């Protein structure tokens, strides 16, 4: 069961809207709502309104609980471009393009099958841990250089190269 909500002709460029959409893609509805309320970008408010609309559609039409919904897909497409002109030097003109966006938000209910497969994937990841350290390969400690190698002493010859003066 998919719930679809669409917002068309939003007066924000699609590449700016995609920055916010990438943050919430795949998240649960509650978590996405929480994230969008704190994002400072201008496109966060219309996406939050669209998410609220999609959740209300799911509750009304399919009697689903908000805690079971997640963002299955969010598409941002370019809408029509309004073209304007601005006067420039020597009687010429520069074109200004006001881009618009179309947003499609797809909510889906979390099934128990998919949650079981996620748990199985987590269990298999736990089994692939290194037996000595007890860590997965991604959790291995980063290797840092020692302080003696990073901070090398500056000699007079280096200073000459740096300042390019003969009398130093």
TrEMBL record:
Looking at the keywords, is Ligase present? no
Keywords of this protein's UniProt record, alphabetized?
Ribonucleoprotein, Ribosomal protein, RNA-binding, rRNA-binding
Q: List, alphabetically, the Gene3D superfamilies matched.
A: Ribosomal protein L22/L17 (3.90.470.10)
Task: Write out the GO biological process terms.
Answer: translation
A Gene Ontology cellular-component term: cytosolic large ribosomal subunit
Question: A Pfam family matched by this chain, by name?
Answer: Ribosomal_L22
Q: Where is this region: Disordered?
A: 114-168
Lineage: superkingdom: Bacteria
Q: List the biased-composition ranges (Basic and acidic residues).
A: 114-135
Task: Output the Gene Ontology terms for molecular function.
Answer: rRNA binding; structural constituent of ribosome
Question: In which family does this protein belong, per the annotation?
Answer: Belongs to the universal ribosomal protein uL22 family.
- What does it do? The globular domain of the protein is located near the polypeptide exit tunnel on the outside of the subunit, while an extended beta-hairpin is found that lines the wall of the exit tunnel in the center of the 70S ribosome.
Q: Which NCBIfam families does the protein's record reference?
A: rplV_bact
The record describes its quaternary structure and partners as: Part of the 50S ribosomal subunit.
How is this protein named in the record?
A: Large ribosomal subunit protein uL22
Provide the species name.
Candidatus Wildermuthbacteria bacterium RIFCSPHIGHO2_12_FULL_40_12
Taxonomic placement? Bacteria, Candidatus Wildermuthiibacteriota
């Amino acid at each position: 069961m998919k719930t679809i909500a669409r917002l068309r002709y939003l007066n924000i460029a699609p590449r700016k809207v995609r920055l916010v959409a990438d943050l919430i893609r795949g998240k649960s509805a509650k978590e996405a709502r929480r994230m969008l309320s704190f994002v400072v970008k201008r496109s966060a408010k219309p996406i939050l309104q669209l998410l609220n609309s999609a959740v209300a559609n799911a509750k009304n039409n399919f009697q689903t609980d908000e805690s079971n919904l997640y963002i299955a897909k969010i598409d941002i497409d370019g809408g029509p471009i309004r073209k304007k002109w601005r006067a420039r030097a020597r009687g010429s003109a520069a074109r200004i393009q006001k881009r618009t966006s179309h947003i499609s938000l797809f909510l889906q209910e979390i099934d128990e099958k998919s949650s079981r497969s996620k748990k199985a994937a987590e269990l298999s990841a736990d089994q692939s841990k290194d037996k000595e350290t007890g860590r997965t390969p991604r959790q291995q400690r980063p290797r840092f250089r020692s302080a003696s190698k990073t901070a090398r002493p500056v000699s007079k010859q280096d200073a000459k190269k740096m300042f390019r003066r003969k009398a130093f």
